[in-house]
Amino acid sequence: MWKAVTGLNKPNETTNFLPADDKWEMKKLPFVASTAIAEWAVIAPEISWNTTTGNVTVLTTENANWADFLGILAEPITATDDDYATAGKLKSIWVPKTPMAEAYFTVWAGTFTAVDVFKTVEIHSDNVSLAVDTAGKWARIMEYISSTRGKCRFSLPETETA
Q1: Residue 142 domain boundaries
Q2: Are residues 51 and 109 in the same domain?
């Protein structure tokens, strides 16, 4: 059973990423060992030396290992978890069913205004918010809610691998 405490479509009850519509589905995926990850962090396949490992982990901000956005973690992974050091442990994540799926986000870096709508920006290095003043490829801003909150769409993989 997953430990998420914030329900779907509850934008004022979280400070991180959160699905904003019904275009998401909950899946259990295998995670890397010994990596603490905050609830509502963005998740990607783990890549080691240009090869997937079969596990998932937190998404890197600059895509250094060519990982793709996969979803949003629906439960925290902490060092005190019984299965923390276990590779392949199953944890719940929200996975978009379509590229049109939108998520609420929090602004960590930059000044966010209504004119930022439709910009593509980077995920902040904390992996749970956006750097709205940093041009990038990870998220397209779709809606302005306040100076600290908005809605976005994530860039989904468009290539196939062997």
Answers
A1: 103-154
A2: no
